Amino acid sequence: MTETAEIQLPEDKPLEIAGKVYQSRLLVGTGKYHDLMETGHAIEASGAEIVTVAVRRTNLGQNPDEPNLLDVISPETYTILPNTAGCYTAKDAVRTCKLARELLDGHDLVKLEVLGEHKTLYPNMPETLAAAEALIKDGFQVMVYCSDDPLLAMRLEEMGCVAIMPLGAPIGSGLGIQNRYNIRLIVENARVPVLVDAGVGTASDATIAMELGCDGVLMNTAIAQAKDPIRMANAMRLAIESGREAYLAGRMPKKLYASASSPIDGTFF
Amino acid sequence: MFVQVNGEAMELPGGATIAVLIDRLTLTGKRLAVEVNEDIVPRSQHEQFTLSEGDRVEVVHAIGGG
């Protein structure tokens, strides 16, 4: 709070996922950065408390001389959210989650994503539903990447998913939210947090997601592939906060024609 | 004996444990998870779990991803 801010706004209810409370509504990925130092700095600038990671064979993905990702993004500081990126079947997604739980000493919060095809990385919803069912039965807390279909979102909630995460646009596309009305419908129906996952390209996209009433936004490429990722991480932090405040404030209704802001009465000409 | 480690054939002494395999991979002490024939082998069992000819072993860790 700055000294000039004398007016105290009522406090927002913080984001709660699977019984844990978070102050930040921005969730970030750790892929596509130049190196681990940049990853660490960008995540710090983003203010995110939940950070996604991928699970891969040890002979892939890292320079052996570099520290491990989890040494930089410590599970003591951040809530690590392992994803099932790259999985195209429920079976592979369930296997990945079990390995992640072992990797993270029994931590059972996962981001489920089962992809349909390489070109769009659009979610394969029948496999996603099958995987969610198996994972929930096995005790996982499932945050689920899904299509923006309001009925499927409700179905996933009824099954016991702890967060519904519809895409705004294809993963890594940066196209922004393509179907605001569907996101809005999903938010209206949901009793668990709804987070836009994928599709955000710049700060205004994140703000729109929050203005629609989303509980948070998960992003990776928009920050990592910005010219200055650390600055963009900060921009996203502000965008999420602004969008949330605007949502809580309640925007004015849209009108087709002008409505003068200055009184018509008392003019002297 | 030969086992498949992360998709590649690897020769290990007969009766080698997962701990021996991890040592061979110079990954001792690293944060990782191990699966043998698609079943998780918990870290607490790495010292005791002996591998058999033809076992398919996956050794994974966390890397950057969204």
From TrEMBL, chain A:
Subcellular location: Cytoplasm
EC numbers, comma separated: 2.8.1.10
Pathway assigned in UniProt: Cofactor biosynthesis; thiamine diphosphate biosynthesis
CDD domains tied to this protein: ThiG
Subunit structure: Homotetramer. Forms heterodimers with either ThiH or ThiS.
Function: Catalyzes the rearrangement of 1-deoxy-D-xylulose 5-phosphate (DXP) to produce the thiazole phosphate moiety of thiamine. Sulfur is provided by the thiocarboxylate moiety of the carrier protein ThiS. In vitro, sulfur can be provided by H(2)S.
Protein name, per record: Thiazole synthase
Native organism: Marinobacter daepoensis
UniProtKB/TrEMBL annotation, chain B:
Domain of life where this protein originates: Bacteria
InterPro entries, A to Z: Beta-grasp_dom_sf (IPR012675), Mopterin_synth/thiamin_S_b (IPR016155), Thi_S (IPR010035), ThiS/MoaD-like (IPR003749)
NCBIfam families cross-referenced by the UniProt entry: thiS
Protein name, as recorded: Sulfur carrier protein ThiS
Source organism of the structure: Marinobacter daepoensis
